[in-house]
Amino acid sequence: MKRVYLDINPQNLIWARECARYSQEKLEKRVEVGFNKYHQWESGNAKPTIHQVYDLVRMLNRPKRRILQQGCGSCPRASLT
Q1: Superfamily covering domain 10-70
Q2: pTM of the shown model
Q3: Res 17: pLDDT
């Protein structure tokens, strides 16, 4: 079966992770990919598969359309630390 990679705005991944209050390290363990791989997604140097994106959506409890959209959302909760 061919893998399908999604071209996702890296800022949307960062937004979703920060809204869910995950560090990169904590999230990469939950997604079961290496730190370098997840870091590459957020830096735009690699693309996640469609299955990895669906895993992220479930883990981060963020709307799929917000992660897949071209623009970047803002997270009002991210500033509450």
Answers
A1: lambda repressor-like DNA-binding domains (1.10.260.40)
A2: 0.79
A3: 92
